[in-house]
Write a structure and sequence with these properties.
Layout: H1 3-23, H2 35-40, E1 47-48, H3 50-53, E2 55-62, H4 64-85, E3 92-96, E4 99-103, H5 109-119, E5 123-128, E6 132-137, H6 139-164, E7 170-174, E8 178-184, H7 189-197, E9 202-206, E10 221-222, H8 226-233, E11 241-249, E12 256-264, E13 269-270, E14 274-281, E15 287-293, H9 295-307, E16 313-317, E17 320-323, E18 335-339, H10 344-356, E19 363-371, H11 373-426, E20 430-431, H12 433-462, H13 467-499, H14 503-536
Parallel strand pairs: 1-20, 11-17
Antiparallel strand pairs: 2-8, 2-19, 3-4, 4-6, 5-6, 7-8, 9-13, 9-16, 10-12, 11-12, 14-15, 15-18, 16-17
């Protein structure tokens, strides 16, 4: 056997074996393989997309304008503390829309300016005079928040989905402020929606226990009557306070009620200083969430608890109180816990949200479609039927019309399919209906390439050339047509991949990979068989 033939034959065998190894996790055979197999060889194959497997399709809109409002709210809440730390007594901070009105003792204007420049460089003074300043966010800071809030939301949602454990999710930005989410195989759409859409702004707020109105607060109220309750007391609520509620469920009946609290509006600590959140089990087998702060958060939490011993501290998530324990002593070490009347699943979801971080702004659901698994199984069944029928027709035509050479072309297409699916498994790609369309198109082009070669060989045989020369001339003459048609289609696939999204990119991946493999199998794999036969025994006749 010639050296060149050995090299080409070896490359085909090696490529085929590698493709099979990567493809095995996508086949039923993988379930019966020994456990050590997955530790040595690839354990991830081709995943089915939303249209084949079923799941959720969401389009969310990030309310980016509220991200600006949230930034102003946080700045207004932190201003008094910073001013007091720098020696400014009795400052007054009021938020007026997107403006902050700051009142301070006369004669302190220069000190205030220095403090603001050092600690709040993103604030600009709109008006000042008479011991007052009207502050606003710089336009550059507003633009930055508007631009980055969607990207931050995208990353936060991706982290939450990863924690939730969805295989092969599709999460990408649409337009300026929309996010597309596809979760194949999801079995709990309501829970997933709750995890994805929750803003998850965790705050620690002190309770106001000196206002006389709390004596009129009942222990619990009926769920759904929160607005009515707030309206009843709104004229007696002091500025800087608000009424929030804790969800309380009866373990025996499952009835849900709400417990009212009067809390300080300003948060003394926020959840952005968390480094971890885990579910733990209490002494009475009740779940709670154990949280850990970073170094700055640990120092601040120790300071806050030390200054507020015997006061109650509300743990608030998205304006819902989870618990309001009384501080018994200064807490050091940067650890705390969130307990409440929730199940282990609810505690687990809360931990997931806290670990992934808060959304920079609320999100609004524009589209929420749950695709049932029956659609996927039906699509797969019809795909198998159409694939078997079309394959049988192609194989029958090739074998009847081109005889043994047609059978060789069919074998090459079989290798083409194995290499293509192995390539998709290597990339850990997600197979969708458009992807299947790309595979079918690439198979069609493979058939076309083999037909071109066999027709050119026939032409050479008709003019009296011996089989060996006819084969060489047939491949040489068909090369240009095959190469040109495949490369132009490959360029189109690359353009679709670069500028397309979602299903279009899936189609482009399978088409591009299929064409690349098609060039290899059509021009190398079949030719090496003919060269091998010629090398072993010079061909006198050719069945074509």
């Amino acid at each position: 056997m010639k050296k060149g033939i050995k090299g080409r034959l070896l490359s085909i065998i090696v490529s085929f074996v590698i493709a099979v190894f990567f493809l095995l996790p996508s086949t039923p055979i993988y379930s019966i393989l020994p456990t050590w197999w997955s530790a040595i060889f690839p354990d991830k194959g081709v995943s089915l997309g939303l249209d084949l497997r079923g799941g959720m399709h969401l389009v969310l809109e990030v309310e980016v304008e509220k991200a600006v409002d949230n930034s102003i709210e946080r700045t207004a809440a932190s201003l008094p503390g910073v001013l007091k730390e720098n020696g400014i007594e009795n400052p007054s901070v009021k938020r007026e829309g997107r403006l902050i009105r700051l009142s301070f003792p006369s004669g302190k204007a220069d000190e205030i300016k220095t403090i603001l420049d050092e600690n709040f460089p993103n604030l600009v003074t709109k008006e000042e005079g008479g011991g007052e300043k009207v502050l606003a966010l710089r336009e550059s800071e507003k633009s930055r928040i508007l631009t980055t809030s969607t990207l931050q939301a995208l990353e936060t949602i991706r982290n939450r989905v990863d924690e939730f454990g969805v295989a092969e999710p599709l999460i990408q930005k649409l337009g300026d402020n929309q996010i597309l989410i596809q979760l194949p195989g999801i079995t709990e759409p309501e829970r997933a929606m709750e995890l994805i859409g929750k803003t998850a702004l965790l705050e620690f707020k002190l309770l106001n226990e000196t206002n006389a109105i709390i004596r009129d607060f009942p222990d619990q109220i009926e769920s759904g009557k929160e607005t009515e309750f707030i309206d009843r007391f709104k004229d007696r609520i002091e500025e800087g306070d608000k009424i929030l509620f804790e969800r309380v469920s009866d373990e025996e009946t499952g009835a849900v009620k709400k417990r009212p609290y009067l809390v300080k509006n300003a948060a003394i600590l926020a959840g952005d200083l968390l480094t971890d959140a885990r579910v733990s089990i209490g002494e009475f087998n009740d779940p709670y969430v154990s949280i850990t702060f970073d170094n700055d958060g640990a120092r601040l939490f120790e300071k806050i608890t030390g200054e507020n011993v015997q006061r109650r501290l509300a743990i608030v998530l998205d304006d819902n109180v989870y618990s309001a324990p009384r501080i018994q002593e200064k807490i050091s070490g940067g650890r705390a816990q969130i307990s409440g009347t929730f199940t282990h699943q609810e505690a687990s979801d809360l931990a997931i949200i806290l670990r992934a971080g808060a959304l920079p702004a609320p999100v609004k659901v524009l589209q929420n479609v749950t695709v049932g698994p029956s659609l996927g199984s039906d699509s797969i069944r019809k795909g198998w039927i159409s694939g078997i029928i079309s394959t049988a027709l192609v194989v029958g035509f090739m074998v009847i019309y081109y005889r043994l050479s047609g059978l060789l072309a069919v074998a090459a297409m079989g290798i083409n399919m194995i290499l293509l699916l192995g390539g998709l498994a290597t990339l850990e790609a997600t197979l969708t209906l458009p992807g299947i369309a790309g595979i079918i198109l690439s198979i069609g082009m493979a058939v076309d390439a083999n037909v071109l070669i066999l027709e050119r060989i026939r032409e050479e045989l008709r003019v009296g050339r011996p089989p060996r020369l006819a084969i060489d001339a047939g491949y040489e003459k068909a090369f240009t047509s095959i190469f040109d048609s495949n490369v132009t289609t490959l360029i189109t696939a690359m353009a679709l991949f670069m500028f397309g999204t979602g299903p279009i990119r899936g189609f482009a991946v399978t088409l591009g990979l299929g064409i690349t493999i098609n060039l290899f199998t059509a021009l190398v794999a079949t030719k090496v068989v003919y060269d091998y036969l010629n090398g072993r025994k010079r061909l006198e006749t050719l069945s074509v």
